[in-house]
Specification:
The protein is α+β, with helices and mostly antiparallel strands. It has helices at about 5-25, 50-65, 95-105, 130-140, 300-310, 330-345, 375-390, 395-400, 405-410, 425-445; strands at about 30, 35, 85, 110-115, 145-150, 160-170, 185-200, 215-220, 225-230, 235-240, 245-250, 255-260, 265-275, 280-285, 315-320, 350-355, 360-365, 370, 390-395. Strands 5, 6, 7, 8, 9, 10, 11, 12 and 13 form a 9-stranded antiparallel sheet that branches. Strands 3-19-16-15-4-14 form a 6-stranded mixed sheet, with helices on both faces. It is globular, with a radius of gyration of 25 Å.
Length: about 450
């Protein structure tokens, strides 16, 4: 007679249910290394109180008003729909040096350069291409900014067709390599003897392939001959071994360039910067997966070296997607980002810094996509980072339309955002860029 195992099956199912119920009592937690999201097997049948989440959101919005300490040189009417930069500096005039340079843009003899540090929200020139274009139309300037070599894991650059050989790429997110080698864009490329690369600028926007000069950034770990190729002309320069960042300038028609590296054992190459002698330049230094904390994987020394050769007048920091969580606390992130911002201030002492608040992000609640309930709390924490470091804050969430915007954009006829309700498309990037330019022009009026 065969033994009946049916009771064992029932017992096993009961144990599994008890286990799942038990772990639902474990509170969520998150740090820079690991995130545990609370499990709840009854989540789909629980009645959710939307009004409570909405009430919490409203309370946080009201709470934020205590940070509005903006002081301006003169009273000015704020046009409808234009976001002010929230200034948390001691004198309320934090952006004055930037706008003083902007007023003298035609006589500076160099471009006013913006470094845009971000994550996947602005990769592939989403938002940054339109921000650069709109500022260049208004204030002059050409070129697509800094273009790193191509990582194997990354897609093609919208700014240039890139071919390369005998290089190994490293980034601050994956295949990190050595911290002391990392460049300002969070990447470096280790080249062996006879390594080479070529870049042909694309007309992605009206001015991206119109630069009048280009700068190659590299570090000769061993002695190296660097040969520049363009059209029917080649130039060669010799560099002795050095741990310091070097720069080579090429002028004239720089729309199609190639560089080769000979008589060397190893050379670090970072990329090529394209711009002009005046106007606005903008470097998109965004890298997928970066919460902002990964900037610590770039040495302060290397950041200072880039500041000496490619200084920024304004730094915009766009982070949050890789740190936000529907559960857990954000105190660990706040503490570490305050340290990141202060280190950026030290490495780029002549640049003003603007921290962008996180954009809208949707989650599914009762079959409806709504703004994540804890997003206002996270944005408030980002504002506190700006307040405690004395920089400026720009509310991306409000600028793009506030609550429910991401769902509306993703589900709309023109699909301005992805169905992950987190990332935006080109059209939405253009919209946010216009909002930011409007904020810049408003701010410029205050400092006149």
């Amino acid at each position: 007679m065969k033994k009946d195992y049916g009771n064992y099956s029932i017992l096993l199912c009961a144990l599994i249910v008890l286990f799942l119920v038990a772990i639902s009592f474990i509170p969520p937690f998150k740090n820079e290394y690991f995130a545990y999201k609370k499990s709840d097997i009854l989540r789909d049948i629980k009645v959710k109180n939307k009004s409570v989440a909405k009430f919490k959101s409203q309370v946080l919005v009201k709470k934020r008003t205590r940070f509005l300490t903006k002081k301006s040189k003169k009273p000015i009417e704020i046009p409808a729909g234009v976001m002010e930069f929230e200034d948390f500096s001691a004198n309320g005039q934090y952006l004055a040096p930037f706008f003083q340079k902007l007023d003298s843009i035609n006589v500076l003899g160099q471009p006013i350069r913006i470094g845009f540090f971000g994550d996947s929200f602005t990769e592939c020139e989403i938002l940054t291409a339109d921000l650069r274009q709109q500022l260049q139309v208004k204030f002059g300037g050409t070129g697509g900014g800094f273009v790193p070599l191509r990582l194997e894991s990354a897609g093609p650059s919208p700014l240039a067709d890139i071919q390369q050989s005998n290089f190994t790429g490293y980034s601050i997110i994956a295949k990190k390599g050595k911290i002391e080698y990392q460049g300002v864009a969070g990447r470096y490329f280790l080249g062996q003897n006879n390594a080479w690369f070529s870049m042909t600028c694309k007309p992605y926007r009206p001015y991206t392939n119109k630069a009048s000069r280009a700068h190659l950034y590299f570090t000769p770990l061993n002695q190296v001959n660097v040969i520049t190729h363009r059209a029917n002309k080649s130039d060669s320069a010799h560099f002795d071994a050095s741990p310091s960042l070097k720069m080579m300038e090429v002028r004239g028609d720089v729309s199609s360039l190639a560089f080769s590296f000979t008589h060397t054992d190893s050379v670090l190459v970072y990329g090529v910067g394209y711009d002009s002698d005046k106007g606005i330049g903008l470097d998109n230094l965004s890298i997928r997966g970066n919460s902002g904390i990964s900037l610590n994987n770039i040495s302060t020394r290397k950041l200072k070296e880039f500041n000496a050769l490619r200084p920024y007048d304004l730094i915009i920091m766009e982070y949050g997607l890789n740190a936000f969580s529907a559960e857990g606390n954000f105190s660990w992130y706040k503490k570490r980002m305050i340290a990141v911002v202060n280190r950026m201030k030290m490495a780029f002492p002549n640049a003003q810094i603007v921290l962008m608040g996180m954009s809208d992000k949707g989650e599914m609640v009762d079959g409806e996509v709504v703004t994540c309930a804890r997003l206002p709390e996270f944005i408030e924490m980002q504002r506190e980072i700006a307040s405690e470091t004395g920089i400026c804050f720009w509310n991306t969430f409000q600028a793009m339309g506030g609550e429910g915007t991401m769902a509306k954009w993703a589900q709309g006829e023109h699909s301005l955002a992805a169905k992950d309700y987190t990332h935006i498309g080109i059209g939405a990037g253009r919209f946010i860029a216009k909002k930011m330019v409007a904020s810049f022009l408003l701010e410029q009026e205050k400092y006149k």
